[in-house]
Design a protein that fits this description.
Blueprint: H1 17-28, H2 33-43, H3 47-62, H4 69-77, E1 82-88, E2 91-99, E3 106-112, E4 118-125, H5 147-153, E5 158-161, E6 167-174, E7 177-184, E8 187-191
Antiparallel strand pairs: 1-2, 2-3, 3-4, 5-6, 6-7, 7-8
């Protein structure tokens, strides 16, 4: 049985916010299958719909007629909730954010360089939403914090290459010793 479409979330048949959330979940399923199953139930969809959304997303990414990343996100997620500037070193990026209903305290952020090339795309804490208190490695719970929050809490953290394009790792030191945290789409998944 297909879920009843919610106009705020889209539906699996039209590639909108719901389908995009399924794409995020597909990559997270590698490390947090139980949390993904809970999220699928909350969204009213099953694993086959998640796989289909991911297949369609990959087809969009690799199509010879593909749109630029900025246009693709606007077509899938609608107009951004916020548009601003973000400086990283000497570079200035356009920062666009969209709400993600599955994680109401987070936003999906896209940083675009002048000319539209995407520099980064991941989940960040929504303005005004409380961040978790991170004091020890034990405070790092799956899906509880973002890359930026862990980097600030355990500074100086050292970014490391992830195992896939949507994955990041951070190495940091706590009282317990050297740790490496793994993130998918910017959301904490596990300690390695």
């Amino acid at each position: 049985m297909s879920p009843v479409p919610d106009p705020d979330r889209g539906s699996p048949s039209d590639f909108g916010p719901l389908s995009f959330q399924l794409v995020l979940l597909r990559r997270m399923a590698d490390h947090q299958p139980g949390l993904v199953e809970d999220a699928l139930r909350e969204l009213g969809v099953d694993r086959s719909e998640m796989r289909e959304a991911n297949r369609r997303w990959q087809a969009m990414l690799h199509s010879p007629r593909r749109r630029g990343a900025g246009a693709r996100y606007r077509s899938v997620l609608g107009p951004p909730e916020t548009v601003g500037e973000r400086r990283v070193g000497d570079l200035t990026f356009e920062a666009l954010t969209w709400p993600v209903p599955l994680w109401p305290d987070l936003r999906f952020e896209v940083l675009a360089a002048p000319g539209g090339a995407i520099w980064n795309e991941w989940l960040v804490r929504a303005p005004g939403a409380p961040a978790p208190a991170l004091r020890t490695a034990g405070d790092l719970l799956p899906w509880s914090c973002t890359v930026d929050e862990v980097a600030r809490a355990f500074a100086p953290a050292r970014p490391m290459e992830g195992t896939a394009p949507t994955r990041w790792q951070l190495a940091f030191t706590t009282a317990e010793g050297e740790r490496v945290a793994e993130f998918t789409w910017g959301l904490f998944q596990r300690l390695l």
